[in-house]
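Protocol step 4 of 6: record predicted structures for both targets in the notebook before any analysis. Target 1:
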Amino acid sequence: MKNAITITEMMNAAKALKEQGEKFTMLGIGPMSKPLLKATLELAQEKDFPIMLIASRNQVDSDEFGHGYVRGWDQDRFVADVKEVEEEIGFTGLCYLCRDHGGPWQRDEERAAKLPVAEAMERCIRSYKHDMEAGFDLLHIDPTKDPEFAMGTVPFELVIDRTVEIIEELENHRKQNGLPEIGYEAGTEETNGGLTSVDAFSDFIDTLVARLAEKGIKAPEFVVGQTGTLTRLTENVGHFNRDNAAKLSVNAAKHGVGVKEHNGDYLSDKILLEHPVLGITAMNVAPEFGVVETRAYLELAKTEQRVVPAEQCSRLTAEMSREAVKSERWRKWVVGDMATASVDEVLADAALTEQITDICGHYTYETPSVKAEIEAMLANLRAAGVDGEAYVSYMLKNAIDRYAFCFGMHGLTSKLLAACGK
């Protein structure tokens, strides 16, 4: 379903509303599963707010690069599933499909292989072009990973050069192929990405906007600002800096650009409620909702054991735990010695296995053995009179609505459309 207004029109309407005194922050959600897609769109419809679905290259990517871990999605299958859910629930709101952390070496295996610069750049541009052709609305251009730089900080000038090079290539492709106008997001939230200070952030925006203008390209819709957030395990271990957040918002607004905050998972209501007041335009949340869905499944598995004969029960908890540990995707979220533990060492530690299942269960949903056990468990519960699918949706909606409410998003879609004369 096509949105009534483009993401650029939406952003312009948002600026107009804020000039009239409205205060709100928008939300980007990582598409961790199809149940999360449905819960997100249903809630956005019920509460009348716009949503951005932010897909990383590890989650959604072209088949030639190994597709994504979520439902084996490439861009076309991802778009098709979103449209299917929209049609199923009669969605009439605003849902923008966004690339999160596109760019060279943004797939885990590309970084591990230390691909040469030319190859990494060429692959990411092919991926972006597929995004555009599939109908994505916003592309995050993030060239701040490079295995050549051992300390992890890519020089400021190189980040700018690669960002401009990628956007220019994509704009030429878009125009040559008659594709619709899209929005861009630049920068990174990574604490080692070189854009952590207010001054560096301001210089980045000033330079990027000027370099793009020289080529006749408009400013990006968003620039990612580092406000001190950092997600590890199932908590935000960063230190939110409200003064920096306010300064970042002011600096970005000088160019008509919105500040996008990443790593917003697990922040307290107290901090979330401040976001609209501080002028933060949008925030991304992803792993938290994966954890919420996993916990819902594990809770249902406990219920299954109480209401279904033992010999008929699924083995969901055991299968999900084993596959979560084997995935080794937990290494990016853990800290200390835990990050270097072997798979066998983790599986031998029941407490550690449980912790890893909690944070990485969502990576296993499409693993054949786990998928089969989820289906078996839900069927068992259905026969016993328990609606497991509804419970999962209920838990996801509650988690999403905490952000939507604190961000002042309820009723925002109607206001944005009215501001655009729709």
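Target 2:
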Amino acid sequence: MSQRVYNFGAGPAMLPTEVMEEVQQEMLDYQGHGASIIEISHRAPPFLEILEETESIFRRLTGLGSSHVMFFMHGGAQMQFSAVPLNLMARKEKRSAVYLITGKWGVLAEEEARKFGSTRVALDGKPLGFQKIPEWEEVLDPETSYVHLTSNNTLYGTQWQEYPDTGKVPLVSDSTSDILSRKEDYSRFGLVYAGLQKNLGPSGLALVLVREDLLGLALPQTPKLLDYQLAHEQRSLANTTSVFSIYVTLKMLRWVEKQGGVAVMEQRNREKSKLLYDVLDDSELYKAVADPENRSICNVTFRLDDDEMEKRFLKQSLNEGLYALKGHRDVGGIRASIYNSMPLEGVKALADFMKDFERRET
């Protein structure tokens, strides 16, 4: 059997070895039922217990209050680009939403929302190459249906350090790439959604947190499986859900709790990212992409001026067991995704390789 690598992929991302081993051990026989978890009905008691515990631990880890409901929906985060406007545009008669765009995912979310109402891009980082999040502060039209942002930009490695105050207008966050990576006050948000494949488990589903007063507002044309009210009423089971994905999510939540909770995850993530940013700031070879004030603790992005040297870096790093460091196809460069599951040892190995590569190449 080949040795496991340090997987710096942006998603699907690495999972803790102990979680993978637990899944492996239970694959053929889930807790004495004589059947695999992937063979058990989504309405059978064993899975309903999984669903209930998953919500219980998430609420305990995050302090999510009773004002918000929680459920899973198909299609990952990108399906929510449609679900959000379908469910929230009709909140106000104007059916108008504001989008704060800090990268590709915000662009795609706004394009999808236009199909269901009017949108206004009130903040756009494109003129800055998405390397910095521009400052934004304005008095919102109270008839605005919602304000949407992406909390962490995986392509460019930027992250909102403080969220804007939107007053009585619900703030919506695509938190796919940094959920559970740092402590958050979820009471500030009307809606938070996150694909599972970074910090929560396998791809294919999204976790959705919605303030209860925002339910029941869906546009008439909203498909059944994108209706938040129905998803809540049916407890994520309006149709056959991905039992396996939620099962792994439960394993991940147990693991986070065992490590000490979200505060410990945040401390570790800040320590890991600082290791890499210190190398970048001391280097004459590597060029950090993100502005220092907006640097992500989840995705560290950088470049080398020489394309051939960058190719050598990626090839040699892979030979050292440092996997999936190539940047997103839209932007190139190098990206180290260091989500909760990435151990400190993996980041130290990358930092040491970076310093060694620079010594050899310059």
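Step 5 preliminary note on target 2. The mean pLDDT is 97. The first strand starts at residue 6 and ends at 7.
Proceed to step 6 after PI sign-off.
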